[in-house]
Amino acid sequence: MSWCKLSDLLPQQDHRILTVRPYRRTYLHQADAGYDWAVGRTFVITTESSPYCGSVVAVDEKHHLKEYGYTHLHIHYNINSAPLEIEL
Length: 88
What we know:
By secondary structure, the protein is of the alpha+beta class. Helices cover 17% and strands 22% of the residues. It is built from two helices and five strands; from the N terminus they run βαββαββ.
């Protein structure tokens, strides 16, 4: 029997995630946050490793995010809930 790390059992993830939060509001439901993203409301980038941390982003800039290698977006819509993950 050989030993392995638990992380070796997980599938390889080849995606880069950008975290954002709503610009001026919070939501009770994930669907509301997803809807606001889809219709173009603004969100603030909260990924500290991003050079654009603190900048405002919206859905119409999705192609720019893809160019920088981001594949998923996490919307932190409520401090008490898990983030909503959206594939770009």
